[in-house]
Amino acid sequence: MAYAPFFENELPGIDIFVCTADPMIEPPSMVVNTVMAYDCPPQKLSIYLSDDGGSDLTFYAMLEAANFSKTWLPFCNKFKVEPRCPEVYFRTASEAVYVEE
Question: Is the pTM of the predicted complex or chain greater than 0.85?
Fold first, then answer.
């Protein structure tokens, strides 16, 4: 989702509600990576996580993600990183680049 910053005041708020039950089947990192891929002003985005399984893993993964996003999202804005999904960015950054001659 991309937006033009000059239309920021006209954008509606977005609420994302995510339900999880088992962190082994639905890894919290996949959920977080998906949500961080949205290009939306932070004040317009609300994310709600329902952890039906009450997993400690999900709780601590979300805590780490919240801390990571404070650095990651400004980095993406500054360097125009696309896609914003950390998993995709770091996977492509670590893959070897082959140049055909």
Answer: no
